[in-house]
């Protein structure tokens, strides 16, 4: 039998739209606004591109950095396709296509970087196994992006030797073992 406290908690989570958000809320007790899953990126991007000039510039700057770190300097454009209600991407001269057709690793990179880059107030981000779905070369690129292009603090759990190797390369990275 569920306690009254559990029922209240479940009632308060009705506005969490996906099983991922609900599970994260249940496991860690973060609010919907504190959980970054990428599910809000379409609306966030649409609002930013239709917003103030500073917001549009920030999106442009983000696309430039994504291009530099992850797309071999090919110009990329992120496009909220309103008719399909899906996010599209255009890479260089290629035809735009739904971002869901992009590899899992590059989708993961975008999910892990957009909020960090576009949040201007220094914040603390917790990332669980950032290497998931990423090619080994992208693991280092992801960390370089986060360290060089944002002013946030990050705590990550990881099994990646590539991340461990970065401890010797950058004094901003610390390693902690938990028994």
In short:
The chain contains 7 helices and 5 strands, in the order H-H-H-H-E-E-E-H-E-H-E-H.
Features of this protein?
Rossmann fold, 179 residues, alpha+beta, globular, disordered N terminus, 7 helices, single chain, 5 strands
What does this structure look like?
The protein is of the alpha+beta class. The protein has one domain: 3-Layer(aba) Sandwich (Rossmann fold), CATH 3.40.50.300. Helix content is 45%, strand content 13%. The chain is built from seven helices and five strands. The protein has helices at 4-12, 19-28, 41-49, 53-70, 104-118, 136-149, 161-166, and strands spanning 76-81, 86-91, 97-98, 124-128, 153-157. A three-stranded antiparallel beta sheet has the order 1-2-3. A hairpin with a 4-residue loop joins strand 1 (76-81) and strand 2 (86-91). Helix 4 (53-70) crosses helix 5, helix 4 packs antiparallel against helix 6 (136-149) and helix 5 packs parallel to helix 6 (136-149). The longest helix has 18 residues, at 53-70. The radius of gyration is 18 Å and the shape is globular. Mean pLDDT is 82; it is low at 1-14.
